[in-house]
């Protein structure tokens, strides 16, 4: 059982982050969700290596999502792919509260959640060659050029992910910012040990397993594009 956090993310000290802690008011329902469901779904950065077989009580493919927002699509994926086990990482307490509330109400059993800095979780908790898929959907684009160094998708980050993926495992990005999509593709095309799953080396069609979010549907109505990139660990 994991202690209930005081609605604050866990992280180690560092100078540059890929996120900011946004002020978000916790609803009474979200606060209650932590009390009721965090012991079931919560995982702590400070508990050491994550043992998926022990945590989920079985041996199954493991999917890690970094930055799940309000968690609706992650909960939907966990429901739609019961043969896989899911780990979510998010720093914003309202999103974590919503996810564990809706997952608990739906009886989702194949989900664990970190409220922590993803780079810290990757470094301290996720074993090498243990993941079948890693997904990062609609990360903060940090669209001002002076802030590009804060973008999570960087060469060092994707190599850290590669070490955590099994050979043949997938790294999947999605963004609605064309400039960020171009940046992601540039990073991935230059990254050692990865192969684009598209034979023509282009962006990927949206895989069936990735739900279309309300945010994405709204963007489509406004004429906004969405770009998916799916790369496979080849070595």
TrEMBL record:
Pathway: tRNA modification; N(7)-methylguanine-tRNA biosynthesis. It catalyses: guanosine(46) in tRNA + S-adenosyl-L-methionine = N(7)-methylguanosine(46) in tRNA + S-adenosyl-L-homocysteine. S-adenosyl-L-methionine binds at residues 65, 90, 117, 140. Keywords: Methyltransferase, S-adenosyl-L-methionine, Transferase, tRNA processing. InterPro entries: SAM-dependent_MTases_sf (IPR029063), tRNA_(Gua-N-7)_MeTrfase_Trmb (IPR003358), tRNA_methyltr_TrmB_bact (IPR055361). Gene3D superfamilies: Vaccinia Virus protein VP39 (3.40.50.150). Substrate binds at residues 144, 176, 213-216. Pfam families: Methyltransf_4. GO terms for molecular function: tRNA (guanine(46)-N7)-methyltransferase activity. CDD domains: AdoMet_MTases. Its EC number is 2.1.1.33. Catalyzes the formation of N(7)-methylguanine at position 46 (m7G46) in tRNA. Belongs to the class I-like SAM-binding methyltransferase superfamily. TrmB family. NCBIfam families: tRNA (guanosine(46)-N7)-methyltransferase TrmB. This is tRNA (guanine-N(7)-)-methyltransferase. The lineage of its organism: Bacteria, Pseudomonadati, Pseudomonadota, Gammaproteobacteria, Cellvibrionales.
